[in-house]
Design brief:
This protein has about 190 residues and is of the alpha+beta class. It contains six helices and seven strands; from the N terminus they run βααββααβαβαββ. The protein has a seven-stranded mixed beta sheet with strand order 1-2-3-4-5-7-6, with helices on both faces. The chain is globular. Bound molecules: coenzyme A.
Length: about 190
């Protein structure tokens, strides 16, 4: 049975252990396999993984297998356009002015990776649902995801309820940008 836990809910030692396992999955499943140098590899890890764990541990969610080992994870950013996310988006080239304007109603975003041997079992869908729930609870109206236009993940995102964004000025044709609304819980009537 798979269970789910955010980095912010882990003890410090569990957090370090689970992050190390998730990092192995990150390098195992990313299409980028070679790096010019150790520094380039570290920069790549920071950009797509480490910056998220540091800035938003409450939105970095692990899927754990029955042995408590990481089966997959979502590195999430609930509010890409806030000060707290400056390091994340400042390091990613596609966060241009026109991109930000087009995605202003979909301020959350994430990266997701599931261990190769465990793909296709519904873990990815559950991780997306967990992240969407966190975003809604934090008041975010919507989520965007970015992947290569030719990636197999496009079909996965569509199956998770995402649809392609309306083309915007300066959009990179090599990228697929997809969006999905969240459910923001309504505040109940105030107690008297
Ligand atoms: C994309 C990914 C997160 C989906 O997680 P998952 O647990 O395999 O997904 P689920 O079991 O919930 O859903 C299955 C669907 O995911 C997609 N999928 C399965 N394996 C995939 C893979 N290696 N790469 C991309 N998409 C994949 C398919 O659309 C599949 O549906 P199908 O069985 O009808 O073809 C996971 O496959 C993965 O980590 N892939 C490699 C890394 C990646 O592409 N990450 C996203 C980059 S933006």
């Amino acid at each position: 049975m798979t269970s789910y836990i955010a980095l912010s809910e882990c003890s410090p030692s569990d957090g370090v252990r689970l992050l190390a396992q998730a990092e192995r999955i990150f390098f195992e499943t990313t299409p980028t396999k070679t790096f010019e140098s150790a520094a380039a590899r570290t920069a790549f890890q920071r950009r797509w993984f480490g910056n998220y764990a540091d800035a938003h541990p409450g939105a970095f969610v692990f899927a754990l297998d029955e042995n408590g080992s990481v089966a997959g994870y979502v590195a999430g950013c609930p509010d890409s356009f806030s000060l707290a996310s400056k390091t994340i988006i400042g390091d990613i080239a596609y966060f241009t002015h026109s991109f930000r304007a087009a995605l202003k109603n979909y301020p959350s975003h994430f990266h997701i990776n599931v261990k190769s041997a465990l793909q296709g079992r519904g873990i990815g869908h559950c991780l997306v649902a967990w992240f969407a729930e966190i975003c809604g609870r934090n008041g975010s109206p919507g989520i965007h995801v970015v992947t290569s236009a030719t990636s197999r993940a496009v079909k996965f995102y569509e199956a998770c309820g995402f649809s392609s964004v309306t083309p915007y000025a300066g959009a990179d044709p090599g990228l697929a940008v997809l969006i999905r609304a969240t459910v923001v819980p309504q505040k109940g009537p105030s107690a008297t």
